[in-house]
Amino acid sequence: MAARDRNESAGVTVNGDDSLRRDSAPELKRPEGRPVAAAVICPILSDQRGKGAAERDPVARIAEAAGLAEAIALDVRLRESIVVRRPTPSALLGAGTVDRLKQAIADEGIAVAIVDARLTPVQQRNLERAWACKVIDRTGLILEIFGARARTHEGTLQVELAALDYQRGRLVRSWTHLERQRGGFGFLGGPGESQLEMDRRLIGDRILKIKQDLEQVRRTRALHRVGRKRGAIPTVAFVGYTNAGKSTLFNRIAGADVFAKDLLFATLDPTMRAVRLPNGQRVILSDTVGFIADLPTTLVAAFRATLEEVLEADLIVHVRDVAHPDSERQKHDVEVVLHQLGLEDRMARGDVIEALNKIDLLDSEARERLEAVAATGAQRRRAFAISATTGEGIEALLEAIGDRLSADSRALEVEVPLADGATIAWLYRHGEVRARRDADAVAHFTVALDTEAKARLAARLGQPF
């Protein structure tokens, strides 16, 4: 992407034009060596309470919001959960709460306030004026993190598309020409000019160009998938809540060096590796971006090209952090995104296996209880207690992946001389033997093989299948 034709901030510079800017608070400075002071405010709306298993734990929620802020090196000095019984159209929070927080923000020297909710442009502007600091909502914060994490050309395009779509709805009428923003995707950046009609046209033109580029990415990925299918190599996609341990598990299985850290959204750009399962079957593992509660729909849409790897995967492994206090809610949030991607039918027919990760962080009683649940009832062979860090339980998970992929293969009737012990052993190693009958020095097998294994068996026996 040419330097003159790229998104330099949330308010984007296109072809050297600095007109895409939104009216906001004074620019957030980042003094050398000193982190920016931040406040995290979690409004708990009355209609979000009392939802049973799907209700988010307030303590876990504010911890997550603070973790998101710390993921972009903000110094969280103030964090507070606030029950909002009647949201106000002008600022979401009540006037008394706004005034109280104004004093606390001033006392702590807060430069940016993060409101863990979706703010309208008017609410964001009014809070910025009241608190005299930068204000961003949950969507803006997630986009800011994604902007900092994107490394590949594709990842940068996807984040830019989501940022532009978000920004387009927040243009306000202001003909004051202010200073140029600097760096990042700009939700923490400074003010700029906002000539409304020109801004909308420039953003619209840039969105169109990015969509064309991403369509080319989508076509390239589709060609790669065709090649893999032609070579009979199934794909297994890892999905899960951010920081559930997907990349750690991916690295352990694939022997890869994908960046893995106890950090929200440590992985953004997808990675794929070929591995051999215990049954000898070759598969492609795909490590994908983590999901999160209230994932902006703009991000789901922008990352469609990447998430198609999940849509086209032969099997999905949902990696869960069972040591997290909000694990059940995280599971619900991931399933919401999978439903948004249109995977309801595949979830219903069992194309999703759960990897119950981080059992090494549980006490012995909780661990035994989890392992018992995973080994019995409806969860049997569909949920596996593992530790990506220590390697516990991963062998059983890989065997289940192999069994599930083999079960999708078409069963063949194969006759092998009983004297050919090597071929008989090969069938047990590389296929799913569903029936065997020995008679007249010949073993009759009903065996399920993937396409690659069928081709190898045909060459081995000198006959087509």
Describe the secondary-structure layout.
Layout: E1 36-45, H1 58-70, E2 74-84, H2 95-108, E3 112-115, H3 121-131, E4 134-137, H4 138-149, H5 153-168, H6 196-230, E5 235-240, H7 246-254, E6 271-276, E7 282-287, H8 297-302, H9 304-311, E8 315-321, H10 327-340, H11 344-348, E9 352-357, H12 364-375, E10 383-385, H13 394-407, E11 411-417, H14 421-430, E12 432-439, E13 442-448, H15 451-461
Parallel strand pairs: 1-2, 1-3, 3-4, 5-7, 5-8, 8-9, 9-10
Antiparallel strand pairs: 6-7, 11-13, 12-13
Helix pairs in contact: 4-5, 5-6, 6-9
Give an overview of the whole structure.
By secondary structure, the chain is of the alpha/beta class. It has 3 domains: 3-203, GTPase HflX, N-terminal domain (Rossmann fold, 3-Layer(aba) Sandwich), CATH 3.40.50.11060; 232-406, P-loop containing nucleotide triphosphate hydrolases (Rossmann fold, 3-Layer(aba) Sandwich); 410-461. It has 15 helices and 13 strands. The strands form 3 sheets. Strands 6-7-5-8-9-10 form a 6-stranded mixed beta sheet, with helices on both faces. A 4-stranded parallel beta sheet has the order 2-1-3-4, sandwiched between helices. A 3-stranded antiparallel beta sheet has the order 11-13-12. Strand 1, helix 1 and strand 2 form a beta-alpha-beta unit.
